[in-house]
Amino acid sequence: MFFNKKIKDNRDVYRVFFKYLLWTVLFLCLILMIMWQNIHVADLEYKVRKLEKEMLTVSQENKKLQTEFSFLSSPERIGNISKKMGLVPVREEDIIWIASNEK
């Protein structure tokens, strides 16, 4: 009789132990998931900031290139360069029009 009671007590102890072990493992899994999620969010925020910086740099470079294009393609500048090269403006009577067969 004493032996059966001892076995029953051991079963109860094991049951309680495994119950707490299961809850502990679940709690640790939850903590690890939360930590992983926070690390992942921080990594994504870093990548977003890096891309925003890159976008700003590219935008500034684009504005710079547009300004340079406007300056280089200005008619006044092209006219000055052509005069320095000895080119003269085309007269209307020097233009030869060619008819095309496209419809």
How would you describe what is shown here?
There is one protein chain. By secondary structure, the chain is mainly alpha-helical. The protein has one domain. The protein has 2 helices and no strands. It has helices at residues 2-72, 75-84. The longest helix has 71 residues, at 2-72. It is rod-shaped, with a radius of gyration of 41 Å. The model has no long low-confidence stretch (mean pLDDT 88).
Q: Evaluate the radius of gyration.
A: 41 Å
Question: What order do the SSEs take from the amino end to the carboxyl end, as H and E?
Answer: HH
Secondary-structure-based class equals mainly alpha
Shape: rod-shaped
What can be said about this structure in brief?
By secondary structure, this protein is mainly α. The protein contains two helices and no strands. 0% of the residues are buried.
Write the SSE topology.
Blueprint: H1 2-72, H2 75-84
Keywords, separated by commas or semicolons:
103 residues, mainly alpha, 79% helix, rod-shaped
